[in-house]
Structure prediction request, 537 residues.
Amino acid sequence: MTVLLTVVIFLPLLAAAVLLAAPRLGGRTAIGVWVAAAAADLALIGWMWWRFDPGSGTSGVVDGLAYEVDLQWIPTVDAGYHIGVDGLSLPLLALTGVLFLACAVYSLREPDRPRTYAALFLFLQTACLGTFASLDLILFFVFFDLTIVGMYFVIAGWGHGNARRSALKFFLYTFIGSLALLIGFIGLFLGSDERTFDMVALAENPPLADSPLAGGLVLLAIGLGLAVKTPLFPFHTWLPDAHTDAPAAGSAVLAGILLKLGTYGFVRIAMPILPDAWQRWAMVAVVVGVISVLWGAFVALAQTDVKRMIAYTSVNHMGYVLLGLGAAGLVASADEGARTVATVGAMYQMVSHGLLTGALFLLSGWLWSHGHTYAFDRWGGLARPAPVFAACLAIAAFGSLGLPGFSGFIAEFQVFTGALQATPIATVIAVVGILVTAGLFLLALQRLLTGDTTAPSEVPSDGDLPARADEQLSGGDGGAATAVRPRTVTRIRDLRGHEMAAIVPLLALALVLGLLPRVLLDVLEPAAAAVVELVAR
Prediction:
């Protein structure tokens, strides 16, 4: 069974190679291959979950690893092909499988170079899975950087608006962040007694424990690299443009998976390998988390563009994650139980955000396909002509604002409960973010779903669904209609079958994790407790 994880990681890449080697393959067939490969990969991950014993991971990254493979790769620096699964990585592997399958189904009618499009997403899936499964710093860095390359081409090749500029901005920001990350990894190597890049060995014998200054600088380098990827304030400025101009499936993967590579790096690398430094600088992490919570919420509230609003809520939600992880390092202020709850909440938030925000970005693609704009003032009254879209949007919005019964509530409740003992003032301030988030999502629903039914002037009729304009849109000389003026319409096509098949399961999973949290908690809790124990050494 040791080969199973390798198969899970590289199966999408193999499917991508098959697609690229068959240039005459039809577009629908290519997307079908993507769907089949993603479904097979998710089935294998499900089998891994079924066979996984959460209780065996009581020592976190040190022991209790399942499906482990450790092969020599670069012997001169003791870097290897070391992969494995524990309670920290398995939920994120499952999230990756679910979201990529949803994007594949959503893209069944992709008209623009579908074969290359599918191959690129399959490549990106391998890079994401490899990052979450890596137990070697160099291997982690290689997969981490490959995700940047893959997403760059997704945005530049299939985005809209100023896609090339946004893709370049994304690449430069995140690549510079990855260079800082590499410097931090080299610092860990040089500071270790064993001169190794192996995460398990480094967690067993933390480097730089007797050098607070060097440990702090290495943590700073690693933290900067991960903060850019997450992204956290003030390193988030690449995010809104990248999301706004990316295709819907690209935005879903960017928010749902790629942002988690940053937060996962904190809990996998920074906390267990640099426990002393994390304890000393934990309050800085808490402060950055709280600022990200408030900044993301208030800036999202001010947006006039649906997609930019959703993008800024990601900064808000990732702030909750860092608040929980920072609280886990405040050993002197909170007991082990409280710090474990905060860590579990942070990990739960990663999964919850991936499901709900992934669904929101796929729903935003429906707006673009109808009117080529995300502007709030171009839409209105969509609940009448598109009730299924309206229902899905409402469910995703209520889940994202933390309504009880959804996964977001379980996550945020645990973060606040665990962090309150460690840092009460920061936690109370962060609660304001929930109020602002609730307000901005309710306002968005009111703008999009209520009032007169209006849509942009270029809304397509789809042949059998004509849109009747109730106001004159042509210019004074009888010219063509403008592309920006809204008009009252009688009918708009609702979500299609493949769109519903992609979005509804994400919302259903968020509901299941809100009503039956033990499904995920049983896997997360032992690993989170192990990380908290390692940090407290």
